[in-house]
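Job type: complex structure
Entries:
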Amino acid sequence: MINCNAARQHLGISLLTLLAVLGTSACSSSQPGSDIRLQGAGATFPNPIYQKWFSEYNKSHPNLKFDYQSIGSGAGITQISEGTVDFGGTDAPMKEEHLKAAKGPILHIPTVLGADVITYNLPGLSAELKLTPETIAGIFLGTIKKWNDPQIAASNPDVNLPVSDITVIHRSDGSGTTFVFTDYLSKVSPEWKEKVGANTSVNWPVGEGAKGNEGVTGRVKQSPNTIGYVELIYAEQNKLPYAAVRNAAGEFVRPSLESITAAAASVAGQMPDDLRVSITNPPGANAYPIASFTYLLVYKEQPDQAKGKALVDFLWWAIHDGEQMAKDMLYAPLPTEVVKKAEQKVDSITHQAKPLRTS
Amino acid sequence: MKSLSTNSNRSTVALPSTKSMPAKLFGSGRLADRLFKLITLSFALAIAGLVVLIIIQMARDSMLSFEKFGFSFIWREIWDPVRSEFGALPFIYGTAVSSILGVLIAVPVSVGVAIFLVEHAPRALATPISFLVQLLAAIPSVVYGLWGIFVLAPLLRDSVYPRIQSAFGFLPLFQGNPTGLGLLTAGIILSIMIVPIITAVTTDVMRAVPRAQPEASLALGATKWEATIVVLQNARSGITGAVILGLGRAVGETMAVTMVIGNRPDISASLFDPAFTIASAIANEFSEATSEIYRHALVELGLILFIITFAINAIARLLVWGATRGHGKAAHA
């Protein structure tokens, strides 16, 4: 584009009109039939729904091709910061230091919501487990070692808990899933915050590591007396049980698409302008407390008009039409309040300081 | 093997100078000779250069971690990405112990298979067996890992480890709560993965021993077993090489190990406890290593793995060199 603009400035005035027309079509590839390829990279968690969106959107926009590599949030942040992709994907919002290192202001567009569920393998359990934040922290800190610990028993009076040792399974690879889980534990347990902290990978006090959501799921599924955390969709697809967790309002809430959306809705009022927010341990009475947004990352100022326009139109479509497909694929859709905020972000994307969204 | 290949190199170098195409093309056989020598030399130098460049690049990309921890990185035991505190010892320990366990289990099996194939098996049986052993090497390591998680680990957890524990539980090596994953399971998976290479090389080396050696001992009244020992003695430098090759593969193996070792950067006396290896730590954590120093610490781990592999190869050379000299003496005696 820059070259095209420079070239245009050198053109003779008499030819300006004619060549500008040609120049626009040649440089910005906006003429019908010429392909636009948008490249993205990042989070693995939303990859299934992104792929669905790309293929659905492609049906009505056959000249627009998407290429999303689900290589992890960290890699997505690196690639968008270096400008090697047109959009990035991340579960945890970018840190201040990473935003500063990027080539320009980056916007966070929330797309869908996910949640970590506490899954376990206790053969012959009569009912679903209910866990308090203190119990979860205790188990993952290693201070609660047996399944029949009084702390677990207190919130599960009708359940026959086994006497066996608890085996904690956590992620061995760095992951947004781990970030959400450790972020939650840091909010509910001062001891966790001080000893371990929140990150995509941490120094786990106990347990063994398995690679990927599928690794943790597989490990929990085939070994008795284990407990782990995975994305809701993995527990659901593998028919693993998961615990109801007591939220900040004191209610035990099962993870479900509704309770995850409720978590986002209950903090929508206090969302900061840049939408970078952690929604773990939210105040809502029916909110599941270990949930998070997943974001697409885009530059506020798009370097290429045609690509920028295509990206903006797609983002608008995703937060409206796209949201309708979320539930079928076990992703929680954004609450309407958050869609409104995301709209403003999409509207603010520009090319040469001119907004790209027109219609 | 080695001397053979150098011989064949020499003969190809000699060929063009006499009467082949390049000689005609350049008008002078000597020029073609020199040119060919230069080209091959540049290939050889390129490989050496590549190794040097890799080391330089890795050293540069681990600067931050080296500046912060210095050499203490090697013996620090902590790995805390949140506080940016890193140390390599648990990973070095896990890599070393799992690989050594793998070799300890694999060597008797491999040498046994090789002895059977070379000394005892009828041809009709030897061919399919060696084919099957080779086939083990063709199985992708992720498949070994899956098999490890879903078949081997539950089997070991339910039937094997409790028995080991009831018999040898007084040893610190076998204490704790065996979950099926851990150092010993990783060692067992690794042993299966390195059996093919050790068996193949050992078989080749034993076949290369002149038949006159065992036949002479048989003629002198030795038993079949004693004759086999003679063959093994003659082949021992090659067998050492085979074992080191197996060790090399075990040290660098990533996927299968990470799936069964439990991925926990801890040093614990029990072989039932989870551990972590250098290769699996890099594979697991690199993509989400978001802070600069975290990435540098992982690259430094890679550098250490590089040096370990280098050292293993150097030791292998020394052993083979020592064994061949010893072999010369033994032949005289």
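Summary: Chain A has a mean pLDDT of 88. The longest strand of chain A covers residues 106-121.
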